[in-house]
Amino acid sequence: MSHEDAIAIIGMSVRLPGADTVADYWRDAFHGTVHIRRFTAAELVAAGIPPEDAADPAFVAATAPLDDVTGFDAAAFEMSPREAAITDPQHRLFLEVCRHALEESGYSGADGRVALYGNTGYHLHPLQGYLRRRLDGRVFDDAFPYNAVNGLQVAFGNHTDFVATRAAFRLGLTGPVMTVQSGCSSGLVAVQAAGHALRAGEADLAVVATAAVHIPQIIGHRHVRGSIHSRSGVCRVFDAESDGMVTGNGAAAVVLKRLDRALADGDTVDAVILATAVNNDGDRKSAYPAPSVPGQVEAVTSALHAAGVSADRIGYVEAHGTGTFKGDPIEFDALTEAFRRHTDRIGYCALGSAKANIGHLDSGAALPSLIRAVGVVKNGLIPPLAGHTAPNPRLALDESPFYLPREVTPWPGPGPRLAGVTALAVGGTNAHLVLSSPPPRPPRRPSRLAPGPLVLSAADPAGLRATAEAWLRRLRRVPTPDPARTAMTAARGRRHHAHRLAITGRTVARWRDGLADYLAGRPGGYVCTDVTTPTTVDDPPATRYVDDGTTDWAAAESGRERLPGYPFRRSRHWIGPPPHETPETHDHDRGGHMPAPGVLTHIQEATAARLGHPVEAVAPSATFLSLGADSLSMVDLARSVEQRFGVRISMRELFEQGDTPAGLAALVADRLPEPTPTTAGHAVPDPQAAPAAPAAQPAPAPAQTPVPPPVPPAAPSSAAAPAHLPPTVPPPEASAPAWHAAPPYPVMPYQVPVADPGYEHRTVAALTGQIQQLITINQSLVNQVAHLTALLHARDGGAR
């Protein structure tokens, strides 16, 4: 395929379980981190589930929840609190990821024709949405009475028909804008539509976005035999223990541009879409919701043909992979048949699925899969299939082109890295996409001076300060961004608000000094709408920007840099009862305490030390008993965890919910104290920046209004990390990375336990429980032997 037909991905954004950035999402993928969790009976009852259902063993309560679905920065999108409150969280997340993806591409304030294709919707939990569960019967009151106008406002903020067009209005997008809805394949179908618009010249840039959130977040279902929902509450894809899918929540967006234009404009290209194909099963299946091998085969082979690529060059396929025992083999058979039309090779192509990590995002499932595959081809690393135990016996794996990766591995061999991405849907709309690693970046001549000042803005003073802090952190890091492209990105690659700041000077060094002066509250080389003290700054472009937002000096294109996005300052906008959200938090949102993956790493290391395993053998989903632990070693492990993190884990919790490293880590994470926030909102990480040094873990702050901390000094560094790549992952050219040796987050070393006054009591309690279990088992065996003896006597007597 020529550059004229290929489509470049130049920006991405996610809000997914456990990850508010693409870097976090890829880190979790490469580590095999699972964010699906089961809820306790108490959590279910608090969320409105009837107690009898919550206590029923047939009631399966598991999903991959999203942190803070009630929060939204209404001011950033010029929404009133009322409008924000009556807007579905899916629509709000959709807006956020669209904006951040455009900012990462450097074109958030672009004047060209920007298209938008997107969707929202949740159908795997029917009628579990914001409109039905929160607004119905509560939204209208004396201040907001029901009438035709107010009714339309509620419709605009909740129906998927309007999600793309409302985002176009809020973000100023003037290209083709529409909702694309085909069920679970909607994201890839939208990517194909966007590609057509770009090739036809209908748009200069295209955003594809999706959001799927069920309300309430704490949810469950009564298991029905034959259902696609998991009985165990665990999503195991292509696995012998597969028993169904588990739902998830989240939002994602990508920014697309013709590859030839992206290279000419100096954009950062994350990956290249060589071709897409979409079809429908029609009536070639047994029932409407059933999958079809012929339809899936045609989608894959059509995409390969359009890309001009043989299947023997594909090294990774991000499968639809829902975790159903019968459905996964159908997709596997279709992929095998499609590949066998090109090659007889065996076991050379890895299979993966994001759903094993973050659950099934319903109509929003395809874009997280695409972004995961971008991480594979960009970074040259193949992630493990999370939670994998053994292959599904219905797979003819040994004779197929595929293998199921158990750990992160480097991409084998040189040359362009090629991957496939599949998305399937109830109703039969199949989509497949062929993805390539980015081409070598053409050399760019660095500039000495910028054409104008550095200009920043926000919707309120606190947001402006948070923006200035984020940009100063970036400008202090190595490599230093190009001054001309930095000024251009700030001026023309961002939307501008009423609170504005202009830093004088035309070099990065001058901007660092000006930002530091502004944040310290002292006079310096800056002009700001929020600073009333007289200034002696003589910089007409800076003054004009602060006065009226003019950036006419930035008319000449200078290219774009990857720079921090808008730091959303979310506050609660919600109607109805509290959503009873899960206590899961993220390090970049809540401050510096260790995130759940760091807790998990400590538990895996401590378990390995006690049981004599290598750390990599301690899988997050493996039970401690299956690893060879007994009740004593589990109690000892619990004591170590309690001392290390300052939490309490009961024996019942340890043996029921914390019987795996992942389960114990979730219990610990839920109990960690909430520290003082260290940042306001979210900022897209700079992909070319070298990693900052790990921050010290602060002690929990007392309950008081937090004071924003000073901007930390730059962390020393000597090399840049690839875009979105977790700091410890080597570039693709490096040989055999020791991934498990250096995780990209703080890891607490295993500590030898010290004296604990409660240790003997817990040990006796655990031994007592174990003895009682043995007595019960022994009694059961005695009863079975007696029953068998009676049967034998009866048989012998009958024979005589």
Low-confidence stretches: 583-595, 675-757
Number of strands: 22
Q: Class by helix and strand content?
A: alpha+beta
Output the CATH topology of the largest domain: Peroxisomal Thiolase, Chain A, domain 1
What is the CA-CA span between the terminal residues?
Answer: 85 Å
- How would the global form be characterised? globular
Estimate the strand proportion. Answer: 5-15%
CATH superfamily of the largest domain: Thiolase/Chalcone synthase
Walk across the major sheet and give the strand order. 7-6-8-10-1-11-18-17-12-13-15
The tally of structural domains comes to 3
Description:
By secondary structure, the protein is α+β, with helices and mostly antiparallel strands. The chain has 3 domains: 7-436, Peroxisomal Thiolase, Chain A, domain 1 (3-Layer(aba) Sandwich); 454-554, Alpha-Beta Plaits (2-Layer Sandwich); 594-671, ACP-like (Non-ribosomal Peptide Synthetase Peptidyl Carrier Protein, Chain A). Helices cover 34% and strands 12% of the residues. The strands form 6 sheets. Strands 7-6-8-10-1-11-18-17-12-13-15 form an 11-stranded mixed β-sheet, sandwiched between helices. β12, α12 (327-340) and β13 form a beta-alpha-beta unit. α20 packs across α23 and α21 (631-645) packs antiparallel against α24 (759-799). The model is unreliable at 583-595 and 675-757 (pLDDT under 50).
